[in-house]
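Predict the 3D structure for this chain.
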Amino acid sequence: MARNNRIALDGQSLVTPDSVSKELLTQNESNSQRDLAVAEAEVALILNLAHQQFLAGSAPATIIHAVAGRLHQMRRKYDYRVWTELLPLIQHHPVAYYFLEDPFTRWSFEKPRGYSGDAQLLDFIYGHDSVAAPLAAASPLGAALYDYTREASSSVAVRERRDILTRYVDDIAQEKGQETEILTIAAGHLREANRSQALASKGIKRWVALDQDPLSIGSIARDFAGTCVEAVDGSVKDLLARSHDLGQFDFVYAAGLYDYLTDKVAIKLTKRCLDMLKPGGTFLFANFAEDIAVDGYMESFMNWTLLLRSKADMWKIINASIAPSLAESEVFHGQNHNIVYGVIRKL
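Done. Predicted structure below.
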């Protein structure tokens, strides 16, 4: 169960799991490597206890809740360099066999599409019909674990994020009228569009859905055929290189992308997105927050490395991207503080 750290998220080596790890390591260059032996012993106790509990037939939800909480504490307690050294130990421990019975966890760990946080993974969070087959095939243990992971704080926040995006689309379409133009970056399967009243009532002129994954592009083209939604194959690098002449938009958003972008790339992309806004247009970006309580489980058993950000981190990106006199900006958390949002309204 080796970690897959070689796949470029945008297919062009601009954003990779290695670049995410490098950014985190750069932020935490302390001398805490001496803590590694203590950390290894601590995590072994956590994993061994969980393994014994699985063998004894304890309730899966109780086991995973305790493990996720303790891994979160460890991720906060130790320097990130120490934490990364623990990941192979966690992923190769016999208890991983049990957690990988969860189809959601297994999909994330194995990365069938080659990168973290893909659109099919989000469909496990949404409980979409597209994941009905693997859910039906799950073992009783896997189904019980999925009942927990689907309702974990991060999953609840992702479903709220989908609904927030839909609300922004509909509110902006109501404000701007039928000439409204929207751009979604790293669109995935564009599930937020399924709930849009503006789209259903043909209140949007154009909705460009950009993604680098051909499977996602194919899904969007199929699901939204005959609507104003236009699926475009493109990456972050394409946007920064201005490879596509996409035009101008009333609303541009990137909801699941910034978790993998270093500050340098995030600022460049934000500037590019602001360039594509019409006067009075809105740009929204979202990021998993430092308050997330299941980060340790996600980064270990799910092999899902993230760049977590605080409100201050989001403001850093905003302030480096546009002069305050040219925009109105805000940063806010979702209801459970697991996702943080940055919104820029261009004056």
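The longest helix spans residues 153-176.
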